[in-house]
Amino acid sequence: MSTIIVVGAGINGVTAAIELKKRGHKVSLVDPGPLPHPLAASTDVSKAVRAAYGADQDYTSLAERSIQLWRKWNQEFGVELYHEIHFLFLRQRAMQPGDFEYESFKLLEKRGHKVERIDSRVLHERFPAWNAERYPDGFLDLEAGYAESGRVVAQLIEHSKSLGVGLCEGSRFSALVEHDGRVRGVVLHDGRSVAADVVIMAVGAWTPYLLPFTKNFFRATGHAVFHLKPRQEKLFQPEQFPVFGADLSSTGFYGFPIGREGVVKIARHGPGREMPPDSPDRVVTAEEESRLREFLAETFPALADALVVNSRICFYCDTHDGDFWIARDPERAGLIVAAGDSGHGFKFAPVLGELIADAVEEKSNPLLNKFRWRPEVQPGDKKEAARFLPAKS
Asked: What CATH number is associated with residue 347?
């Protein structure tokens, strides 16, 4: 049994703490709080859950297993946190080989998923909020939906406490304790040192700022998120308005139907704005809202003048190739960095803890090679298919 400190109680941190506690380790979670942390990417009303990943079989397979576990979580927790209401992927031209949507459709079809090809006629008849003439092709994934992310994190925090995970809420990480090339604990903001055999840094977009030696590996980028109040609510109920990606490689826009908050959530996945996650510039700009309005007028006319009841900046911890980073630091024994969600990590919540725990215990896991410590990856290496994935936010 090892003594393990997990810094950061977002989705990476809390799932890692739960899995490691189940494996017999002594685990403490350190987070400044309140929990769920109001600035954390995990803290929001919804995150998309789906197995569409272009031609990438690794992520597709991992997502398939994750979706099975999302269904199991609903049963185990006795509350519907994952809503399997389908996912609509559309393009502004015919799908072709090489397109994210085409490759996703073909791979899901090959693997036996329930998917339906959607053309303008079907779009007009079944999903009337859409400008069907603008989106002539795409597909509907019937085995996808969204998770209520903030409620998920809150549920998992309570579950971790019930298992005996120590929760140090209100404690802010200050520095690593290092001796002879090995990490032996952390220093908190009040000067206290807490010893551990292993430290897991799961701090999302704060990673390159709290661990400056990782600044060449990660970028913290902000992305605008909008909550809108539609006048014609019926058009935006899940039955007629599933989770969607609107020609992602072209527009970057994706969104969700009306949920328990009574709003339609729409956001844009793209390069974002690089800045620290607690920057005073963490506000949606007039330019970002203008781009939203232009998109709405072209895509959802009934939302064109909808009231924006809330907006926020959701932060990604981007890697240069779009893949996750779950790895031991080769220069600092005892340190694991679990970061690099790159805008598509939350859907894997049910399997993230296992991946991180395997990295801690140095267990064989082929995906950990994909998510390895990889300083050789340089800016500009990011794959387009990984760049335009509508999962985060």
From this structure: 3.50.50.60
